[in-house]
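Appendix B. Chain record.
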Amino acid sequence: MAKIELLRELWDFMRIRKRYWLAPVIIILVLFGFILVLTESSVVAPFVYTLF
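Structure tokens predicted for this chain:
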């Protein structure tokens, strides 16, 4: 439940202060984190690290 409240507060912050440009930045950071977590213990890891 705390995650939903955090997302609600983040959305309220962006909406009130007109900081909509933060949404794509946050989404990209979450996607990079998700990719790193998925590939840290798999066979695909060497191929992903060559991209960066």
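Further analysis of this model is presented in Appendix C.
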